[in-house]
Amino acid sequence: MDREATESRADQPPAPAAAGSGESLAQLLGGRGAAVDATLPPVAFVAGWLLADESVPVGAAAALAAGAVVAVWRLTRGDRPRAVVLGMLGVAVAAMIALRTGRAVDFFLVQMASNAASALAWAVSIVIRWPLLGVVVGTALRQRTRWRRDPALLRAYSLASWVWVGQYVLRLAVFVPLWWAGAAVALSVARVALTWPLVAACLAVSWWVLRRVLPEGHPGLRQPLA
Questions:
Q1: Given a cut of 70, is residue 15 above it in pLDDT?
Q2: 74 with 34: CB under 8 angstroms?
Q3: pLDDT of residue 160
Q4: Which of 60, 151, 166, 175 is paired with 97 by a 20 to 30 Å CA distance?
Q5: What's the Cα-to-Cα distance from 95 to each of 25, 31, 110, 197, 202, rounded to whole Å?
Q6: Cα 188 to Cα 186: distance, rounded to the nearest angstrom
Q7: Where is the region Disordered (predicted)?
Q8: CA distance linking residue 46 with residue 150, whole number of Å
Q9: If we measure between CA atoms, which residue out of 127, 131, 213 comes closest to residue 164?
Q10: CA gap 49, 105 in Å, rounded
Q11: Structural domain boundaries in the chain
Q12: Residue 92 contacts residue 67 (beta carbons within 8 Å)
C-alpha cells in the first residue's frame, strides 16, 4: 500500500464472523481518514492556481498551507509524528517540482511515482511469497511472521494483495493520460475520486477475497495455523 492506504482510517461496518474474528479489514488496518487528508493539498493547489489566474506559486503556497493544517490536525489526534512529517514532505516536494517546471500538472508527479513504486513493490512481494497485505495485517496483529507458516493464510494474503496492485495500476491508467494532456483540474478531480473511495473499495474487495479464499473452519486472521 502506499501511505494513503496504509495510514487510512475507514469506519466501515464489521464483516461477518466467517472471517474468523468478526472484524473487517478496515477495522484492522484503520480507515480512510488519512486518505481524505491526502486529497486536501492537491485540491488546495488547483484551487489557488485557478483563483490566481493560473499562478503556480500561489497554488504551491495554498497546497503547503493546506498540508500544514492537515499536519497539525493529525498530530492533535495522535498520529505518529514520522507519518505526519512524511506526508508534509510529500506536499513540499510536489510543490517544489511544480515551481521548478512551472507546470501545474507536475504537482501530481510525486503521486504518480508513488503509485508506480507501490504497484511494483506489492507485485514483487507476492512473487517472493511475502505479500505486503500479510506483512501489514500481521504487524497490526503483532503476529510477526507466524501468518507465513499457515499455507491457507499465505495464499489468501497473496491473492488479496493483487487487489492492491490493481488499485495502483488503475490510478496510473487515469493519472498519466491526464498529466500528459496537461489537465490539472481533471487531475485534481481524479485524485479525489481515486483516493478515499478507491481505498474503501480496495479494503472491501480484498477483505472479501480473504474471506472467500480461507477454507471453511479456519479460525481467521488472528489465529494462524502452524
A1: no
A2: yes
A3: 96
A4: 166
A5: 33, 27, 10, 25, 28
A6: 5
A7: 1-21
A8: 48
A9: 131
A10: 11
A11: 3-213
A12: yes
